[in-house]
C-alpha cells in the first residue's frame, strides 16, 4: 500500500537582520527549488512566510533558511506554527509589506559596493556605466535612507524616485539580482549628482561633475562631497599645501585625517597590512582601519597624521567614491564639518556651513535620513578594537542575556552615542560627536527620535551619566519630566565596565574585576576618577582600588595642557619644579607662580585619579608634548615612541609584541620579541593600603624624574612607564582575586585604545591565569558608554556593594 504524503501549511517567522539584504528573493528562490507553495513578505517583526507542502519538505526548507541565508543577513531565530491548509495553492509569491503595531525587525547597516555593481560601473556597455548610485540586494544604502519599518521603497528616501520601466522589470524579475532591491535606480530614474563651484562658475552634472571634482582635487582644491551618510571634505593627500589649507580652514591643527584609496595595492605603498587589516579593509563595512605607516613612508603621511605611527585608511565604499578616487591616488576624506560640530548632511546646510572650508561642492538629491559618520577600527593582536562604531555597523543590536523594560540611555559628553533597548536587543546608535555645543545636542535629539520612531519604543526609564555638568544628562532630565518616566543616573566607570559585560553577554549578577582607565569621569565622592579597579556586575560596583589622587588645577582645562598636569604631579609628589625639567621650562615663570599658588591653596583644584592625565603628565615630563590640540594627542605620541623601543631592530612589519615567538634579525643576530622586551624593566609599584587600595602615582613620578636626571632616553622612560602601568594592572588584579575569588578581568575605558598597553597587560594577566575580557564590538572609549548605562539601567538596584 502506498503511504500517504502528509501535506501541511506552516507560518514561519524569521527574525534578525532580514530586511534590506535580499532575503525575500532568497526565500522565493528557495521555495521554487523545494517546490513549495505560499508567500513571503516583510513586516514590522522581520520576515513572515507561509509555505505549504509535505512536512519533510517544509522542515528542509526551514533548515536551509538558517544554513544558506544571504551573506548580508543575520538570522537570529526561525520558528514556525502549523496553520490551516489553503486549497490547491501551487505558486509562491512575494507579497507587499504589512505594518504591525510593534516593530522588531532589525535594520541593516549600509553596505559597501559589491563586485558585481563595481563591474557594471566600469563596463562601457552597461546602462549603469559610471552611474554613482548603482546598487543591488547585496549592497548599497540601508540605514541612512530608511524612514520607517517594515523595509520597503516607500519607507525610504528612495520613495522620491519613481522606477523607470526597465528598473521596474528588474525589480520584479526573480532571475535578476535587483529582484526587490528597494534602492534600485539608474541614470533614467534615480538620483543625480552635480558640481557647484564656490565662485560664479557654471554648474555641471553627472559625469562632467565627477570629472570637474577630480580636476579640482588634482589642482590642490578642497571639495565638499555629499556621500552615503553625510558630507566629506576631500583633497589630495600628496599635496601638503592642500592638506595644510584644509587644516587651517577646519581649525584642526594636528588631529590625524583619514584617507581613501581605491584598492589594497595603493594602500600597501605607504602602510603595513596584516591579514586582519586586509579583511577589514575589503569587508562589506569598509571602516577606516588604523594602519602602521611604512618606515620609508612619504612626507605626505606626516602632514596627514603628524607625529603618529598610524594612518587611518578606508577603501572607496560607494560607487560615487569609486568613480572619484583612481588607483594609485590617495585622498584625504575627513568629516564634513567644522571641528567640534556635527557632520553636515543636507545640501543647503552644507553649502552654508562649509563654504569657508570647501572651494567647490559635489551634491546629489538622494536625501540622507540618518547621518552616519565613518567607523574606525584598530587591530590589536589580530583582534578588532573599535574606536568609533558607526557606518557599516550601526544600528545592529547587541543581544543582552536577559529581557527587561524598554529604556533609553544617553551616553556621556564626548564620542556621544545613545542606546535604546527593546526586549533582549540593545540598539547602540551611530557616532554622534562631542557635546560641546547646541548643534550636537540637536543631532543627538534627532538620533533619539529616529530610533524611537523606527522601533516604536516608549522608554520606561531614561539613563544618564551622574556628572552634574553634562549636556546629555541635562537633556535626559528634561526628557524624564516631559515623558513622565524615571531618570536613573549611573557612575561613569561602572557604565564602562557594564558595556564590556553586555558586549560579552555576561549574566547581570556575575561580577568581574573591571580595570577602567580613562581621562575623566565623575566619581561618587565628587572627585574626577579615571584610574579605577572596580568589582562590578550589572547591578552594582565596589571601588576596590584607584590611582592616588592628584589635584587637577583648573579642572578639565588641564586636558589641553599636559605641562600643567606634569607640574601638578610634581607638586603632589613633593618634587621641586627644577628648570632642568622640560615641562617646567615650557610654562612661563609668571604662570608657574600662579599655578603654584593655585595648588598650594587648593583653589579650583579637583582631586583626580585619572590615568589619562597621568599619561599626559609623563608625556610632558619626557618632552613629548606640553600642549595638545586634540584629546589623547600626547598619549598617542607617547605610545608611538614607546612602541619603537619594543620594535628596536625589528622590521616594521612586526608590530610591538605582535608575536612573542616571531624571530627577527637585529644586529646580525637572532632575537625574539620577548627577549628584547625583557631588557626593559618596569618601575617599582608602590601600593598604599587603605580602605580603598591606592597605586601611588607619586612614587612613579619620582622614578621618572630620577631617570630624567640621569639622562636616560625619553623613549626608554616611556617604555618603562607602559610596562609599569601594565604591571600595576596585574598586581592589583591579583590582590583583588585573592580577596574576592574572581578570576575574570575586564580592560575598558579610553586609555585601552593604546594597543601597546593593552597587549602588555593582557599577556601578563593571561600569564597569571586570568580570563581577560577586552572590547571587540563596541569601543572602550565613551562611544560604548550608553550600552553600559542601558545594561545597568535594566537592573533593579544600582547602589554600591556593601
From TrEMBL:
Enzyme nomenclature, EC number: 6.2.-.-
Ligase keyword on record: yes
Active-site residue numbers: 24, 42
Keyword annotations from UniProtKB, A to Z: Hydrolase, Ligase, Metal-binding, Transferase, Zinc, Zinc-finger
GO BP of this protein: protein maturation
GO molecular function: acylphosphatase activity; carboxyl- or carbamoyltransferase activity; double-stranded RNA binding; ligase activity; zinc ion binding
rRNA-binding in keyword set: no
Pfam families noted in UniProt: Acylphosphatase (PF00708), HypF_C (PF17788), HypF_C_2 (PF22521), Sua5_yciO_yrdC (PF01300), zf-HYPF (PF07503)
Protein name from the UniProt record: Carbamoyltransferase
Biochemical pathway: Protein modification; [NiFe] hydrogenase maturation
Residues annotated as domain YrdC-like: 207-392
Catalytic activity reported: C-terminal L-cysteinyl-[HypE protein] + carbamoyl phosphate + ATP + H2O = C-terminal S-carboxamide-L-cysteinyl-[HypE protein] + AMP + phosphate + diphosphate + H(+); an acyl phosphate + H2O = a carboxylate + phosphate + H(+)
InterPro entries: Acylphosphatase-like_dom (IPR001792), Acylphosphatase-like_dom_sf (IPR036046), Acylphosphatase_CS (IPR017968), ATPase_NBD (IPR043129), Carbamoyltrans_HypF-like (IPR051060), Carbamoyltransferase_HypF (IPR004421), DHBP_synth_RibB-like_a/b_dom (IPR017945), HypF_C (IPR041440)
Acylphosphatase-like domain sequence ranges: 9-96
Entry similarity comment: Belongs to the carbamoyltransferase HypF family.
SUPFAM superfamilies: Actin-like ATPase domain, Acylphosphatase/BLUF domain-like, YrdC/RibB
